[in-house]
Amino acid sequence: MAYVISDDCIMCGACEGECPVSAISAGDSKYVIDADTCIECGACAGVCPVSAPNAG
Question: pTM of the predicted model, to two decimals?
Answer without folding.
Answer: 0.93
